[in-house]
Design brief:
single chain; alpha+beta; Glutamine Phosphoribosylpyrophosphate, subunit 1, domain 1; six-stranded antiparallel sheet; 12 helices; 11 strands; elongated; disordered N terminus
Length: about 325
């Protein structure tokens, strides 16, 4: 599908604005469809987006654990993200924060924005100059919005898919993106996508990374939603693996092993997860369960056996020479030292 390049779109907009003697904001264009939502059970909040625009996640998606999420698109003012989160952080309800920012905006007609706070309060705005088909649907603790779509069925399709989908918040947001694309999507096609999910309560240590459950971007891809879904599955597995580590540190062994098992089931062909699962098993005396995993890994890649030898010095594997010798015996003869 042919389309105007971003610089060509901006040039046309400049000429039109000059002819009409109206001011033109220097803000970026992001014609797209997106959804913001809160999971009632977990309190997690998320925003997901797809567009025929490069790196759409860099400007559309905003979120902070314990505060809220924002999608700012069409004629994008990123300040709606930054200032919206600041207002919600101070206790302003999302709908009120959105109204305040629109009232203070010199060029609101080209905007499309959705805001949702940690209490599930949500609202959206579509300016009268957002390129058709454009509109939004606000539901219970979510909002779906779109502009420059192939038709006006896109955002209702997102809402319906979100309301009737199952799974964690990330899966439901991705289901909404799939539905939007199936209904026609961006009239220009597809290029990039993003998914951001934050926790319902902040840790007070946002730099540690625990406040963001998913923070994924596909900046340029022929099938951005499919690629985003693949990355989300990887992140979901990594989340279970991290939880396994946390539970092991708390000596909650059965729960830890279940988390490790879930991670490896999600990514059965990802050797890193299998390696650390085997390390966990061997460390708690489940040597017979760890052995076949180590054997397969050592045969596939010699460096896994070498890595295992390095772990006791870092406190990540028992300092038990006899156990290490038995595990190293699983490597092919040519790899043994």
């Amino acid at each position: 599908m042919s389309s105007l390049k971003p610089f060509a779109v901006l040039a046309v907009a400049v000429l039109v604005a000059a002819a009409a003697r109206t001011p033109l904001s220097a803000d970026r264009l992001a014609h797209t469809f997106s959804i913001v939502a809160r999971d009632e059970a977990t309190g997690e909040m998320g925003v997901a987006v797809q567009s025929h625009a490069f790196s759409v996640g860099a400007i559309v998606t905003w979120g902070e654990a314990g505060v809220g999420v924002v999608a700012t698109q069409s004629l994008v003012d990123p300040g709606y993200g930054m200032r919206g989160l600041e207002l919600m952080r101070k206790g302003t309800a999302a709908p009120d924060a959105l109204r305040q920012l629109i009232a203070a905006d010199e060029h609101p007609d080209g905007r499309q924005v959705a805001m949702l706070d940690a209490m599930g309060r949500v609202d959206a705005y579509t300016g009268k100059k957002a390129i058709a088909a454009a509109g939004h649907h606000v539901g219970k603790e979510y909002s779906a919005q779109a502009n420059l779509m192939a038709n006006d069925r896109v955002w209702p399709a997102m809402a319906d898919a979100y309301e009737h989908s199952q799974g964690d918040l990330a899966e439901r947001l991705l289901a909404a993106l799939d539905a939007a694309q199936a209904a026609g999507g961006d009239i220009r096609g597809k290029e990039s996508a993003a998914l951001l999910v934050v926790r319902g309560k902040g840790s007070g240590r946002p730099w540690a990374g625990a406040d963001r459950v998913y923070d994924l971007r596909v900046d340029d891809h022929p099938e951005p939603i499919k690629e985003l879904r693949r990355l989300a599955n990887m992140q979901r597995a990594m989340n279970h693996s991290s939880r396994c580590d946390e539970l092991m540190n708390e000596r909650r062994i059965p729960e830890a092993l279940e988390e490790c098992a879930v991670a490896t089931r999600l990514l059965p062909d990802f050797p890193e997860l299998r390696f650390w699962h085997a390390v966990t098993l061997a460390s708690i005396g489940r040597e017979s369960d760890a052995a076949p995993i180590f054997r397969d890994l050592f045969r596939a890649e010699p460096f896994w056996a070498d890595l295992l030898r390095r772990l006791p010095a870092s406190g990540l594997f028992p300092a038990d020479p006899a156990l290490m010798e038995r595990m190293q015996a699983l490597a092919p003869r040519s790899q043994k030292r």
